[in-house]
Design a protein that fits this description.
CATH topology: Thiol Ester Dehydrase, Chain A
CATH class: Alpha Beta
Pfam family, one: 4HBT
Order of helices and strands: HHEEHEEEEHE
Number of domains: 1
Helix content: 25-40%
Number of helices: 4
Shape: globular
Family: Belongs to the thioesterase PaaI family.
CATH superfamily: Hotdog Thioesterase
GO molecular function: fatty acyl-CoA hydrolase activity
Keywords: Hydrolase
Protein name: HotDog domain-containing protein
Length: about 160
């Protein structure tokens, strides 16, 4: 049920038709547990920079969205707005590479959520991102009781 909740949240990014949907159109959610989601994506030509590596702006968009989905895995239907995001780019990745994205909600406080996102290619840790979100109380009041949801879900 948690995986279903995350996929439902993910659909909002896909259906908006804007920047978010362009960033995540090829992404697949493969796992969801409380505070952690895993995704995969095959790098496409439109994700690349002129040097033939994953574009830094695209990577930042992935950190934003995956971090938001990790907040949703804490039982939230909406995840607030970004207040801070930073990315350390550690290695490149080329077109056709399959990337694994692990996003963690490290803390969901009274008004802020703190996330970390790791993006890996088959060869290396490509990027580490940190993303802070403002989560207003009215959003937190709509929280889904996680004790009603399974704690581990994986799809193949």
């Amino acid at each position: 049920m948690l995986l279903q909740h995350i996929r439902s949240s993910f659909q909002k990014y896909l259906s908006c038709g804007g920047f978010d949907s362009a960033i995540v159109s090829q992404m697949q959610i493969t796992k969801a547990v409380k505070g952690h989601i895993t995704c995969s994506v095959v790098l496409q030509k439109e994700n690349m920079n002129f040097l033939g590596s994953a574009h830094g702006g695209w990577v930042a968009g992935v950190v934003d969205i995956a971090g938001s989905l990790s907040v949703a895995s804490m039982g939230l239907d909406r995840t607030g707005v970004s207040t801070d995001i930073n990315i350390s780019y550690l290695a490149g990745a080329k077109e056709g590479d399959t990337l694994t994205i692990d996003a963690y909600c490290r803390k969901l406080g009274r008004t802020l959520a703190f996330t970390e996102v790791e993006i890996r290619s088959s060869e290396a840790l490509m990027a580490i991102g940190r993303h802070t979100k403002y989560v207003p109380e009215k959003i937190r009041e709509q929280k889904i009781p996680l004790d009603e949801l399974p704690t581990d879900e994986t799809s193949s």
